[in-house]
Amino acid sequence: MIAAAPFCAPARADGAAAPIVGDRPIPSMPENDDVRIAAWPRLVEGPKAQALAYPGTTARNGWGAWSVSVVDGADAFYVVFAAGTGGGPLYAQGGWILKRSAADGSVLQAKVFVRSDPGTFVRLYPYGSRSRIDVVAYGGVLYNKVIVPLPFDELLRSPFSRIVGLTSDVIDWSLFSPDPALYRDLRGLMASVRAGLPSLRYADDGAIDADGRAVLISTLGSQAAPAGLNCSGFVKWLVDGMLHPITGAYLSVGALKERMLDSRGSSFTSGFEERYDPFFGLDWSRSLARAAWSAFYPSLRGDSPLANDVAEAPFALRVADADPVNGGSAYEPYSDNFDDAGFDVRGLKAVLFMLASSEPGRFYLAQFNARDPEPPNLRRYYHIAALFPYFDEDGAFRVAVFESAAETSLDAVTRRGYEFVKLVRMPAAGRFEPQALDLP
Questions:
Q1: Most buried residue, 11, 48, 65, 155, by CB count within 10 Å?
Q2: pLDDT for res 79
Q3: How far is the C-alpha of 347 from the C-alpha of 363, rounded, in Å?
Q4: Phi/psi at 377 (5° precision)
Q5: What is the pTM of this model?
Q6: Bond preceding residue 389 cis, omega within 30 of 0
Q7: What is the mean pLDDT of residues 278-291?
Q8: What is the band of 49 on the pLDDT scale with cuts at 50, 70, 90?
């Protein structure tokens, strides 16, 4: 049974770098057009040797300090206008990097960081007498080749607010201007879940049934001590904690594990249901979501089990490299959102950013899947995690990850070899009353 697969075991959070705090909404993003114009004769129009000899300096304007420097590369060199006084990351919000050709010194393109993340920027480049713009968020290319009705040379001397104004009919810039107050309830639920983690432990195939017994999901028999929760049992514990204040009851393990044969799979997979239960994680998550939404909104009680899936098509391209200076130029295709697989794991953070911006206050049950390496190469759902994408009070985008009775990280869960991830929407509750797991 997939619920008992070793992939369900918890893993520690890794040491991924924390985002920079203090990002502003797009309308109040720091500007440095005056700094660029002042440096233009020497660093943008001047010859390569003159630009590379530039020692670097700190310029100041009404927005604050800007570190101005030049970075050499193989086929190009880069004029950097980074927020801060130097020594900090080059990708702080508001920074510009102009890429000049090593052959003739022309400006090939410019990169502007709209959030303090190396994979979140806009790319500007010439297009005849006009310009074009791409918008990249956490590695996903959200907009590609949008025309800006402004000559490239003039665009490079303009404040970013002018670019926003010229493209606002096509680009939804509000994605980058979240209101942190809209995530207050979600942050409250996260705090409640964190507070309950010390009372839990991991156990293979473990869950708590509606009557409070610690059971094995596969047989519904009682667990041997010490009892615990696996990935499936843990997300049930989380959802039960939200529903109990509303319904006064907890969910039945037996009902949750019923297969939804009419809602997924094919004639090929039907022969493997009993032996491998390949869609267990997907069926389980959809059952939890249906129970949650029908408790919050009773009129939805008869909805399809697929009603809460994130079914929207994602962006079509992603960047393979997000080095702040010269990365992100090469795009690669990004697959569609498949009915029985979901999104390519490599684009998950970008998908979660878009969901957090457009659907504030929700979290998602994520079902991670991959094909077995051995014949018949069956795709199986190996793991479930609860993902909470949100913007903190300082405006930084974050994703809290809860899985298998522990808090880990997005980097940790996506580096385990899964290929795709299916997302199911969940509401967030203000009160949280989870079941108790008896610990000796």
A1: 155
A2: 98
A3: 17
A4: 55, 45
A5: 0.90
A6: no
A7: 88
A8: very high
CA atoms within 13 A on the CB side of 384: 29
Stretch among 81-95, 203-217, 343-357 having the lowest mean pLDDT: 81-95
239 Cβ partners below 8 Å, 6+ apart? Answer: 251, 288, 291, 292, 426
Strand-by-strand arrangement of the 379-391 sheet: 343-344, 420-426, 363-371, 379-391, 397-403, 406-407
CA angle at residue 310 from 432 to 192, to 5 degrees? 15
Phi-psi region of 394 (alpha: psi -120 to 50; beta: other; left: phi over 0): alpha
User: Beta-carbon neighbour count of residue 18 at 10 Å?
Assistant: 8
pLDDT tens per residue, range 84-131: 988 889 999 999 999 999 999 999 999 999 999 999 999 999 999 999
pLDDT of residue 276: 59
- Which residue, chain included where needed, has tokens 């869960």? 413
Q: Which uninterrupted H or E stretch holds 78?
A: strand 76-83
Closest CA to 403 of 238, 282, 274, 285: 238
Dist CA 400 CA 79 (whole Å): 36
